[in-house]
Amino acid sequence: MSEKPWNGRFSEKTDKLVEAFTSSINVDGRLYAYDIEGSVAHCKMLAKTGIITEAEASSLIRGLDKIKQDIAQGNFQFDDSLEDVHMNIEARLVEEVGAAARKLHTARSRNDQVALDVRMYLRAETLNIITLLAELRQVFVDISKAHIDTVLPGYTHLQRAQPVLLSHHLMAYYEMFSRDSDRFRDALKRINVMPLGAAALAGTTYPIDRHYTAKCLDFPKVSANSIDSVSDRDFIIEFLSSASLCMVHFSRISEELILWSSSEFGFIELSDAFSTGSSIMPQKKNPDVPELVRGKTGTVFGNMIALFTLMKSLPLAYNRDMQEDKKPLFDTVDTLKACIEIYTNMLPNMKINKDIMGRATSSGFLNATDMADYLAVKGMPFREAHSCAGKAVSYALNEKKELHDLSLEELKSFSSLIENDIFSFLTTEQMISRRKSFGGTATENVMAAITAAERLLNGEDS
Fold first, then answer.
1. Whole-model pTM above 0.85?
2. Which residues are CB-neighbours of 462 under 8 A, at least 6 positions away?
3. DSSP codes of every residue in 126-176
4. Domain 16-106, CATH among 1.10.275.10, 3.40.50.300, 2.30.110.10, 3.30.70.3270
5. In the annotation, is 147 catalytic?
6. What is d(CA 396, CA 405) in angstroms, rounded to the nearest whole number?
7. Which among 203, 285, 339, 414 would be 20 to 30 A from 298, CA to CA?
8. Which of 105, 109, 157, 363 is catalytic?
9. What would the pLDDT profile of 365-381 be if each residue is shown by its tens digit?
């Protein structure tokens, strides 16, 4: 059994059940590179302040670099009895460089050490996610540009409402994922804070230079309160909250792709490479990728709730409960990245059935609002125009016709203001082109939005 760092206080060996129960190495082992990077910076700071010698620092850094290489190459055996990644690395460092390794932990605790590791990990992964989201947003821009003349019914309450450009609809998701990117970028301000040097909770008596350590690790800010430094997990919860909202957006588009790929809609067809079949029904082609993304949304929500629940009653400062923060964090990072990557590759291979989408705009009275607008332009108060158009819809339903199928005489029976020019108001093309209000679905608006998005993604308008 490996010697514990607290061995001096205890008279009995730790039970093997306790070792297995308290070990986190199977989870936090993935932090090894950040743990070593943090230790190297800490080592440099200890030498700079004269707490250890330059020779000791050089020896420790060489040992740490070798351990990092060994772990990366699979030449490192983690030991449950050493509990976590920190103690496993420290134990190997003792083997590599001898007694000097025991000086490395001077002026720090595992409490601030793990806080540092997680912040460094999450900083890197957040930057990675922002990059992946930019690639996904580019996909929405590319598809929107390629389908600038494709129309489909816009829906409210899952009922056909008004025609819109498909590109306008897809650019709505561009906006959602842009907000997600902004949230992650903003969260970096809280993630990118250096906690090392807080020690267990009260700081340290050694003459350390925390700002030098922060500079070594590229942190723009140093945590201001030692108690908060080791007990803060707000930055993880904030990340999980942002990830959860991002997954809401994935779930919404997943639901639409599932509906649109059904026989009832037929708007799209997912590539065979991103679909699965049935083990019993030969004709089936299932949208399993969107379904799984929709399902994984619940997992990410659960991870966020787990962290909220974990932290809600913890007294200051560090408590061992907080060891459980990494499973939901790692799972969320892995899940979100996987969802972004699979959508970035799936969407460009999706077949868009332009004709079916277009035909769907010709039924369901999508031009009723335009009839009301026509009457309002002629001088009728909009509320009266709304009622008039509603009566025309009711009549057309009874006649099993659409508004644009009614004769001029039939339409004039609802208002003397109606003239032959109403029919141009009721075409899909005119309904699209007239909606020029900022943010509306008019082609020129959508093209402007696409151009602005391209400039932003290309770094021309940052």
1. yes
2. 456
3. HHHHHHHHHHHHHHHHHHHHHTTT-EEEEEETTEEEEEEEHHHHHHHHHHH
4. 1.10.275.10
5. no
6. 9
7. 285
8. 157
9. 999 999 999 999 999 99
